[in-house]
C-alpha cells in the first residue's frame, strides 16, 4: 500500500509541475506582449514596412539588385572573384576531429632553427629559464600547442 501512495504522490507532483509550467509560460507570454507592445504598430504593418524598406535598400544601392543578378547570371562562375572557391584557412571546423580515435595530426610547417624566434625565457642550451611556463619548454608533450 505504501508503494501505491508513493506512486500517486509522484504522479500528482508531476501533474502539478506540468500545470505550473504551462501557467508560467502563459504569464510570460502576456508579460512580454505587454512589455514590448509599444514596439509593434497597432495595425500590424510591421512586416510590410520592413519588406518595403529592404526592397528600397536593395534597389537604391551602388549596383541595384536586378542588375547584379543579371551580371552574375551572364558571367562564368570562375571569373567572379567574390565567389571564387578557395581553400579555407579556418581551423575551427577541424577542432572536434582531434578527439576522434582515428585522427592523425597533419604535419606542420615548422621554421628552421635559423628562422625560429627565440623567447627571452628560453636559454641557449635548450633548458627553460626559471619561472617560464612548461608550454615553452622543449619537453612539452606532443600535440600540446603553446
Describe the secondary structure blueprint for this structure.
Layout: H1 2-35, H2 46-59, H3 65-74
- Strand portion: under 5%
Sequence stretches where pLDDT stays below 50 over 5 or more residues: 132-138
N/C terminus separation: 64 Å
Tally of alpha and pi helices: 3
| Global shape | flat
Sheet/helix structural class:
mainly alpha
Main beta sheet strand tally, sense and closure: none
Secondary-structure element string: HHH
Total beta strand runs: 0
Global mean pLDDT: 76
Radius of gyration: 32 Å
Share of helical residues: 25-40%
Question: Could you provide a short overview of the structure?
Answer:
The chain has 146 residues and is mainly α. The protein contains 3 helices and no strands.
Describe the structure.
With 146 residues, this protein is mainly α. Helix content is 40%, strand content 0%. The longest helix has 34 residues, at 2-35. The chain starts with a helix and ends in a 72-residue tail after the last helix. Mean pLDDT is 76; it is low at 132-138.
Keywords, please?
146 residues; mainly alpha; 3 helices; 40% helix; flat
Amino acid at each position: 500500500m505504501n508503494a501505491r501512495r508513493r506512486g500517486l504522490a509522484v504522479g500528482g507532483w508531476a501533474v502539478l509541475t506540468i500545470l505550473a509550467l504551462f501557467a508560467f509560460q502563459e504569464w510570460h507570454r502576456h508579460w512580454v506582449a505587454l512589455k514590448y507592445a509599444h514596439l509593434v504598430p497597432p495595425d500590424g504593418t510591421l512586416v510590410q514596412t520592413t519588406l518595403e524598406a529592404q526592397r528600397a535598400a536593395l534597389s537604391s544601392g551602388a549596383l541595384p539588385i536586378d542588375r547584379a543578378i543579371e551580371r552574375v547570371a551572364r558571367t562564368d562562375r570562375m571569373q567572379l572573384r567574390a565567389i571564387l572557391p578557395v581553400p579555407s584557412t579556418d581551423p575551427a571546423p577541424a577542432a572536434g576531429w582531434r578527439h576522434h580515435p582515428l585522427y592523425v595530426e597533419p604535419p606542420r610547417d615548422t621554421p628552421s632553427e635559423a628562422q625560429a624566434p627565440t623567447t627571452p625565457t628560453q636559454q641557449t642550451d635548450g633548458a627553460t629559464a626559471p619561472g617560464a611556463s612548461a608550454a615553452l619548454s622543449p619537453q612539452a608533450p606532443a600535440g600540446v600547442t603553446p
